[in-house]
Every structure is written in C-alpha cells, then in structure tokens.
Amino acid sequence: MARLIVVLALVATTAASATPADRLSEAHDRYQRIASSGGWPTVPDGPLVRPGEADASQIPALRRRLAAEGALMAGASAGDVLDGDLAEALAATQDRYGLSPDGILGPRTRAALNAPAGQRARQIRVALDSLAALDLPGAGRWILVNVPEYRVRAFEDGRQILQMRAVVGADRDGWRTPLFSDEVEYLEFRPVWNVPTAIAREELAPRGADSLAAEGFELVRRFAPDAEVVPLTDSTLQRMIDGHLLLRQSAGPRNPLGRVKIMFPNRHNVYLHDTPARAFFARDDRRLSHGCVRLERPAQMGAWLLRQREADIEVAMNEGTTRRVTLEQRVPVVLASLPAWAADDGQVWFAGAGYTD
After folding, report:
1. Dihedral angle of Cα 69, 156, 269, 302, to the nearest 10 degrees
2. Global pTM exceeds 0.85
C-alpha cells in the first residue's frame, strides 16, 4: 500500500553506510524534538477496533498519533474507519514496538502508542550508551541477538540481511540470557539434547521413568555419541538424581532443541536453536527459555550461515541422523541489551513487553 511509509519524519541519514550509533543518534534527536515540541497525540480509551471497523474517537486520534511519528504519509486517507492503509501502518508500528503485528487497536497497543515521546527518547539514549560499550563488527558477516527486544538480526558489510523474532531466557536467576560476544563455529542438525543437571533433576525427574522413556529420554554415563545407554527405570533414574548418571533426549519432534542448533561454544552453554514450541513466537513477552535463544526461522538463519538454499537446510533439519556442519569461516555473534535499535532505513525498533527503563 503506497501510502504507508517506513521511515520517521525528517529522516536525513538512512544510508546503510551509516553506523548503528549514527542512526540511533539521529533517532534520538528526532524523538527528543517531538518531546520538546509537546509530544505526540494520545489515543483515548475505547473498545477493541479491528481492521474494517469504525470508532469516531479512537481512529482519528490513531491517525494523528501515527502521523506524528512518521508512520503514516501526510496524504493518507482520513475518517474514522480502521482501513487497509491505517491497519498496515498500525501493524508495522506494533512490530517495531514489540507487539503482535495484527493491525488491531487494543489496550496493549494503545498503551505502547501512548508512552510519551520523551520516554522513547530515553530508551534510545540508553541504547546509545550501551552501544558505546560494544565492539560491534563494522564489516563482514555477523549476528546480533538483542535480548530485551527478543529479536535476532544478521548483517553483511554493514547491511541488515535478515531479522526474526526470538525467545530468550526467563527473568529468573540462572535463566537470564547472558550478554557476551563469540563466534559461530558449526551447526548441528537433528541434535541430541544433553540435559543440564539442574533441569534433569528438578524439572524432568518428577515425571517418572516411564514418561521420560516415552518422550525419547535415556540415561548415559557421559555425554558422547558412542556412550553406553543405561536402561531407564525408577532405580536408574534415582541414580541420575544422585549424580551418577546423565540424562539426554534423542532427536525427534519432542526435543526442545528442535531440528538444528547453531553453536558458538562458550562457558554459559548458550546457543541459538530451533524449537517445537512455535506458539511462543506469537507472545509479546518472550522471556521463556532457560537461557538459550530460540529462533523463529532457524532454516533461514542456517541457510545464511552456510550460504546454501533454505530448502536444502530444511531437508537436513528433517531427514537423516544427527550431524555437524562446520562453517568455512566463523561468524561473530553479539548478545547485547539494547532497548532500541535503528534499522538501515531509519525505523526505530523498541524493546519488547517486560522491559522497563
């Protein structure tokens, strides 16, 4: 739809050659100007408004609010109907604000839109300060995991190549996704899950031996492909609880690692991986894992990393046995905490639900 624009008003520098700091700095100035001039219009309370429906109070205010941020072209249609152009602009804004991009005006969307421009400028300021402490690659291929945004991006020579939603560590001691930099070394297709001891004892053992065996779990003395498998019984499960055996789960549809994991070996035992829990990606607050990062489109990321067709990656994910594929050249990965990110085109993406500044 031609009337939807994808940059904020008065964007002067949107070239991909601008650095992330350049784009965030320019965004901070824009949002600060909006705040200094009185802020943007708010959307009044009211019932849920779906695309095609009308609301004489909320919809005109929504048009003014989106136009103030530059998400609607000045010549967009008027009226009190949530029409196609407006729904598309709203969905794009929801996506940038970490909400489900359904084009529906509801309480969560209204609250995000009504956050003051000064608050958004502060988020950008925090991101700028945090960015200054990071040594992001300026060239080549690299991956950014932005933890509070629940989003993963891949870059090539300064340009964003792809982005996707992610599930990150829950907001609990020992579960939060750590912040660090490393290099992706290999992909493992149809991975076996070597269950961390705490999870095995506290979360899985209470299910009982029969239930675990039915889900493809097995006991071993060491984590290795050729490890001897110990029959899973109530007595051997107790031996695992006592620290004498280890628990692992074979590849399959119930394996929480899904069909591929992307490895950058590190002391945190954190990596990127697929997941069978696809419904989690529809949530606004995606702090749901034990620390690893689950990818919305793992085949797309795998294809980019290995420079292969996505269809070939899908085959490897769905057929055959567990196998490892090493990258010809390692790819840096940065796990960071940035409450805002300015994309190549100047759009500003904000941290998701649950973030507080």
Report:
1. 100
2. yes
